[in-house]
What does this fold into?
Amino acid sequence: MYVDLTLKFISSCQNGLNVSWDKIADIVVIGFGAAGATAAITAHDLGSEVVILEKTDTGGGNTAASGGAFLCPSEPDNAADYILALSSGSMDEDIVKTFVHEASKNVEWIVKLGAKIEPRGGASYPSVKGASSMRAYRLQGVGPGGDRLWSFLKGKVEERGIKVYFKTAATELIQDVTREVIGVEARNPDGETRIEAKRAVILSCGGFEYDDNMKKEFLHGPSFFSMGSPANTGDGIRMAQKAGADLWHMGAVAAPLGHKFPEFDAAFPTRLAHQNIGDPLSFAFIYVDRHGQRFMNELGVDNHLLWLPFAYFDLERLEYTRIPAYIIFDEATRLRGPIVRNQNGYNRNLYTWSEDNSDEIARGWIASGATIDELAQRIGVSQRLLSTSIEAYNNGCKQRLDPFGRPTKTLQPIDSPPYYAIKIHSCLLNTQGGPKRNSKAQVMDPYGKPIGKLYSAGELGSLWGFLYQETGNLGECLAFGRIAGMNAATEHIRENDFAF
Ligand SMILES: Cc1cc2nc3c(=O)[nH]c(=O)nc-3n(C[C@H](O)[C@H](O)[C@H](O)COP(=O)(O)OP(=O)(O)OC[C@H]3O[C@@H](n4cnc5c(N)ncnc54)[C@H](O)[C@@H]3O)c2cc1C
It folds into this structure.
């Protein structure tokens, strides 16, 4: 590390600092999603010259693939109590307080920019103190919520003439000998390029949903797939690490259930899950493990935390018995509509799931059997366990008492053949981990000191460390995007002739 920095310093000195740069800006924002766009708009409006580097040719990242709902707490003090209770010690009070105060201005900020909003959801954990302060919103309009939010923010960046360099992946942060960040090295279709940042660099390039090594190292249990953008490969984490950053929340994720097929990088969000209680396709389904055994109340765990029961490791069998697991359903459910949420996730523009799920049966994504035994045979689970699981569930439906405690109104029998099974996996909406930030959005080193002129926002090193409040990530993108943009814009402008 020391040698590497020294070499970079020498080469800068040999060429003179000014001439070694291909481009110059006050602030370089890395990653063009909600956090990057918000930071860029804020810094620009405070008078800074901002450029954005974006790895893909469109930007949008997980933001565009999302539901587009963002948190805007109504009473910051109560909201802080609630979020601290969810954090179970994984978040500092200071940063939570800063977050809720800034996030409570999210609606005001976006409406001032010209957005029209509508309410969208509340507390994920209504019984926790302070839950009533959890208010969420999304932009009005048609089409997927993430698209609405993304096209709005992107439009505001374009209106301001903020330069976005697409197909430009940041590869390294350039630091001076004091470790202050002075620019960014990036790769574009023409080769390597260096951009000087006279005030600061803001990292907002998302999570590590598509980095297999980091997932193996930090997440609990194998095979987390993702529903978001394949461009989120943890680049910002590696760049920040190399610059000397501390990491936090690396094991924290929001991960509901989805269906993953080799033809697509991203997974499809399932509709047969907790999140659709208010808008069910059908309740006639259960989850079974890889042996055919039912194991949980399918509607009892908050959507974002569903990965946890699926990461169960069986200490007798010495295996993850719920990876993969299956959703079992029947003909009546199949005919009700697509079993995935077509409006959500990265695949929403790449594939339209058929209305009656027949295309996906033909593709072999959904297995079918005229009887439960035949279905068990098709998917390779125990006939005994699968039929016992379904019988017990159907008996519970008759008696209005589910062995796993499902609410009575959701007890619909699985009894109209043929029967169907589809694999389910935990699929990331996002990873929360990354460089640790303080309440000023500065990236911190492992000794608790900020790395000079380096800021972060959004999912990259998110403040969410344990239980997640839904809509909290986009709420954080907007709040910490503004904090990062504001503080970066007030950094002093580095002179060209500073002395080492
Ligand atoms: C299906 C789905 C639904 C969701 N719904 C919600 C919701 O309703 N509410 C909510 O709060 N959260 C939701 N989330 C989570 C939320 O979308 C993300 O946490 C949030 O969008 C992250 O925004 P971001 O700006 O930090 O990163 P992103 O939006 O992911 O943007 C990061 C950008 O950085 C770019 N990038 C990556 N590496 C580099 C590099 N080396 N150089 C330059 N650019 C780079 C990427 O291409 C990308 O464009 C959802 C996620 C998914 C997948």
